[in-house]
């Protein structure tokens, strides 16, 4: 039986979106577990998270646009 880390069960939505592990860890460490949680953070703060790259941010923006979610100002 494989032990699941505490973060693995919190990043399922990020895995489904296709984010790389460093970006997923950055989001979970910031207590952002789903796309709707991105309302809590500004784009600048998201960009400054360690592990969050340009590709991940671009992917998140596309998903957010589709769900009509915006970053905090």
Q: Tell me about the largest β-sheet.
A: none
Low-confidence stretches: none
Mean pLDDT: 91
Radius of gyration: 12 Å
**What structural class should be given to the helix and strand makeup?**
mainly alpha
Number of strands: 0
General shape: globular
Straight-line N-to-C gap? 45 Å
Tally of separate helices: 4
**What order do the SSEs take from the amino end to the carboxyl end, as H and E?**
HHHH
Binned, the helix content reads: 40-55%
Number of separate domains: 1
Proportion of beta-strand residues: under 5%
Describe the fold and architecture:
45% of the residues lie in helices and 0% in strands. The chain is mostly helical. The N and C termini lie far apart (45 Å).
Question: Which characteristics define this entry?
Answer:
73 residues; mainly alpha; 4 helices; 0% strand; globular
Layout: helices, strands, pairs:
Layout: H1 12-17, H2 21-29, H3 43-47, H4 54-66
Short description:
This protein is mostly helical and 73 residues long.
């Amino acid at each position: 039986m494989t032990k699941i880390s505490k973060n693995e069960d919190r990043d399922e939505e990020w895995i489904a979106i296709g984010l790389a592990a460093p970006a997923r860890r950055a989001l979970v460490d910031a207590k952002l577990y789903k796309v709707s949680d991105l309302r809590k953070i500004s784009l600048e703060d998201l960009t400054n998270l360690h592990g969050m790259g340009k590709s991940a941010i671009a992917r998140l923006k596309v998903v957010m646009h589709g769900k009509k979610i915006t970053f905090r100002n």
